Structure formats: C-alpha cells, structure tokens
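sorry to bug you again but im stuck and you know this stuff better than me. below you get a single protein, a line of residues and a line of whole numbers that encode the local backbone shape. mainly i need to know what kind of three dimensional shape the backbone takes. anything you notice is useful, everything is just below:

***
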Amino acid sequence: MLFVADIGNTSINAGVYDGTTLIQTWSISTDKNKTEDEYGALLLSIMCHKNLAASIDSGIISSVVPAITDKFKNALERYVGIKVHVLTYETKTGIMLDVENPKEVGCDRIANACAAHKLYTAPAVVVDFGTATNFDIVTADGRFIGGIIAPGMRFSAEAFSSSTNLLPKIKLDSVERVVGKNTVQNMLSGVVIGHAAMIDGLITRI
C-alpha cells in the first residue's frame, strides 16, 4: 500500500492507496512547531487506529511548507518504517514543466497537472482551493504551461479583520444572496460570491 500526503499551509491531507483505490483519508492541522517525534507519534497512532501501519510499503509527499517537509518525511521513515519520496520539479512524472523556471513550480501544482492529465481529458484547468487559489493549466500533450495564483477565500476573509479597524472577523459560510442585509452578509458575499465570480471570469479569459 502507498501512503500519500499533501502538506499545505493550513492543513496536511493524507491517505492510503491500495493499488489505484483510495481506501483511507484523514486531515491534521499544519503545525511548524511540531517536532519530528511528535509528527511520528501522531502518524503512527492514526495508522494503528485505522489498522494500516503494517500494510504500508512506501510513501510520497507533496509539500509547500519547507519547514515541515524533512520532519514529516523523517517521521514516516523512523516511526512507520517506510521509504518516502518527496515530490519535486525533478521527479519524473510524465509532465513537462513548460515554464520559465521549473524550480518555482510548487509540487502541489505538479500533482494537480499529473492528476488532470491522467484522470481527465486534457487540455484542462485545475482550480485548487487552499490558502491560495491556484489555476493550473495542462495541455493535451502533458505540458504544464503555467497558470494563476490568487488569494484564497480564507486568506481574503482574514484580511478584513487584520487590515481594518471596524470590520469584524468572519467565518466562511454559504451565502444565500448577493446583496447582504448586514455587514457580515456583505463581507461573506464579497469573499464567497466574489471568489466564484473571479473563477468564472478568469476561466473565461483563459
């Protein structure tokens, strides 16, 4: 079985594949202060709880948080006892990075391009929601040709309270109307519906 993990700025999403079938998933918070041993103990505990620890043969991780990458990799190798590969721009994925500087391409975007090309009909645009919202473009012949990086919804929502004096802190939620009747509804509309409009507009322009 194969362990996979996507280490993002806010959360670490992990799972286990049995062949091509995803059989388990879980998510933990990204914490740069955790030690290698803390990550190891946590991962081993989760895998034992799910009866997976003895069945996993290898792992691959994608990380956009350099401060965690080595700690997480070493934790898996020491505590779970598997060999782990870290996805980078040098990994042979079958996707050509047709951009000015391949070293700049985040491994999350490489993974998106690989998945889109393998699982869906390319050319394709992958929209990846995280701390940032990424638009990753892959061609029919397997080239990642670039894309767009925009502020994510949570990032935009947090900017209200951190950068203004009078606007309150809001929690992301569904929006029933474009025109809000109070300040929180106004802000949610701007973040959620504004984000949807941005996506529609950018995809149309692409």
In short: The chain has a mean pLDDT of 94. The first strand starts at residue 2 and ends at 7.
